[in-house]
Specification:
Layout lengths: L12 E2 L2 H12 L2 E9 L12 E7 L2 E5 L8 H6 L4 E4 L2 H10 L6 E4 H7 L7 H9 L19 H10 L3 H14 L3 H12 L23 H21 L3 H4 L2 H10 L4 H5 L13 H13 L21 H4 L1 H21 L3 H4 L2 H9 L7 H10 L4 H21 L3
Length: 401
């Protein structure tokens, strides 16, 4: 059955301090978990800030808050300090909520719960339809939420995103309890709340799509210079980098090394509305790369950050490749047994790092300690440490580790 309208209609957008104070009072007076969602302008804006925050709670109804007009939600945060906050794919929304002063202390993540329960498709719309028999309209999920004023149909969509989130949470909690996974979920939710942001990549420009086509160090320097300039421009005008200049244009310019405006604008994306305003800057960046001394050109491969890609292990360290295969097999068998994706049973990066540099000696305790140091949760360690240690010890006994 399609879910077409919020039960109490579309609430007005809260965009004043007086209105926000009323929302705080209403939600402080409510009871039970609080459903929360946030809309960003991914793909349109450089920042990951929230442009709309939606909440729903029993006894409080639904609220839509404009965090651009009301950028400080710390009073709301204080009012809900003891409440469980229900989010879908919480790791996507928590950073932008924290920017406006809303930091949950207790979390239930419906997407993560679905993964632990082994559901193959865990998008909100799919889970609501399959578990609650209701169909959500998801047509505005990729909209530019920085638009003002927000269209009514977008606001309807936003309100419906939290309309039945508490009902979904309650059903998933029952299923987790029935399968003996509720305590696992509690650990996972706490880990999401306490996650430390990953440090910035040392060479973020190396993630340029299509960079594998760039074969020499001088051309790589062009990629680096253009990527850095694009990032600076995108940050200043708050546009997604790809809307300033697509990756494909950076790679093409690196391969062709244009020397003037005519040859640069022959690469069509450089004639785009934003890119053409900076033609001289793009050319200057290319010329900087062209004149750099050989000694400071970037290396073909970036600095190592952890183990090499797994597909290279067989050549670089055949014993490590065998360890990785054995550990992956053990984890996959356990994941099948407990009906969940292998990456939720144990993080793939932890498996790689453990098997690239295994503890010496390999025991249940040493494997458990290493997994813990790599960020594995206690429930994950309890399930996987012994099978992994057993698999690695078997290789050692055969002289293959």
């Amino acid at each position: 059955m399609p879910l077409l309208e919020p039960r109490e209609g579309i609430p007005p957008v809260t965009a004043t301090q007086r209105g926000l104070d009323a929302v705080v009072r209403a939600f402080a007076a409510g009871h039970g978990p609080v459903a929360v969602d946030a809309e960003r302008a991914s793909g349109y804006r450089y920042s990951g800030r929230a442009y709309l925050v939606q909440l729903r709670r029993a006894g409080s109804g639904t609220a839509l808050i404009d965090p651009i007009a009301c950028p400080d939600l710390s009073d709301l945060d204080a009012a809900l300090a003891d409440a469980e906050v229900v989010l879908h794919a919480a790791n996507q929304d928590l950073p932008c909520l924290a920017e406006v002063g809303f930091r949950p202390r207790l979390l239930f993540d419906t997407e993560l719960a679905g993964r632990l329960l082994g559901y193959e498709r865990v998008g909100l719309g799919t889970m609501v339809e399959n578990l609650l028999g209701l169909r959500l309209e998801k047509g505005h999920s990729a909209a530019d939420w920085s638009t003002r004023p927000l269209p009514e149909d977008w606001l309807r969509y936003a309100a419906l995103d939290v309309e039945v989130l508490i009902e979904l949470r309650d059903l998933l909690a029952e299923q987790l309890a029935e399968e003996g996974k509720l305590e696992w979920a509690v650990e996972e939710f706490a880990a999401v709340l306490n996650a430390v942001p990953a440090p910035p990549r040392s060479d973020p420009w190396r993630r340029t799509s299509g960079i594998h086509r760039v074969r020499n160090r001088r051309a790589l320097a062009v990629v680096r210079e253009l990527w850095t300039l694009r990032d600076q421009i995108a940050r200043e005008v708050d546009l997604a980098p790809g809307r300033v200049l697509p990756d494909s244009a950076i790679v093409t310019a690196a391969m062709e090394m244009p020397r003037g405006a005519k040859s640069l604008t022959a690469i069509t994306p450089f004639t785009g509305r934003v890119a053409r305003r900076h033609l001289q800057s793009w050319l200057s960046a290319i010329n900087r790369a062209r004149t750099l001394p050989e000694s400071v050109l970037p290396q073909s491969a970036g600095p190592g950050e952890g183990p090499p890609p797994a597909n290279r292990w067989a050549d670089r360290d055949p014993a490590a490749a065998r360890r990785l295969s054995a550990a992956r097999t053990a984890v996959a068998a356990l994941a099948d047994e407990h009906r969940m994706p292998t990456e939720n049973l144990l993080q793939p990066d932890a498996v790689r790092r453990l098997t690239w540099e295994p503890p010496d000696p390999v025991t249940d305790l040493s494997v458990a300690d290493r997994l813990r140091s790599l960020g594995a949760r206690e429930w994950q360690i309890a399930l996987t440490a012994h099978p992994i240690a057993k698999a690695l010890s078997r290789l050692e006994a055969k002289g293959e580790a």
